Amino acid sequence: METTSTEMLSGRKRIMTIAIGYILVSVIAGAIGQITLKYGMSLTGQITLSLHDLVPTLWKIFTNPFIIGGLTLYVCGTVFWLAALSRVDLSFAYPFASLSYVVMLTASWLLFNENITPLRLAGTLVVMLGVFLISRSGS
User: Fold this and answer.
1) According to the model, what pLDDT value does residue 79 have?
2) Which of 9, 10, 39, 135 has the CA that lies 20 to 30 A from 109?
């Protein structure tokens, strides 16, 4: 039995939908991981990377449960990213990674009371527009 062009398009659309889902999970896991890392580092305090303080600093960082959790989320996001890359072109997938800018801008403002300037906001809107345009292009 031959595969019709309609069936091929339907299959390709399904692959794209799954890949975009993987990309979004990757972006969200990575962003939550970064937020968790930031919170963990805010509990740890400012660190130095001098050779004299290296071992105590690393111990302080890697015994912090928020750092461990943040790194774990980041690794999980990477697994989903790899699954997406196995399905679509890198030139299609990679711009979606910039959605993390939108998530991080919002989270930084809401969770850490960081100042969001009009220029940062405008830049984020441009990123969102770019992702929209690329998503319309297919793979």
Assistant:
1) 98
2) 135
Tokens of 66: 């928020």
Please count the residues of the chain. Answer: 139
DSSP state of 51: G
Long-range CB contact pairs, 121-127, < 8 A, 24+:
127/98, 127/99, 127/101, 127/102
* Distances 106 to 17, 18, 20, 48, 136 between C-alpha atoms, Å: 25, 26, 21, 29, 25
Instruction: Give pairs for 52-55: CB < 8 Å, separation 24+.
Output: none
pLDDT tens digits for range 46-77:
888 888 888 999 999 999 999 999 999 999 99
Annotated domain spans of the chain: 5-135
* pTM recorded for the entire structure: 0.76
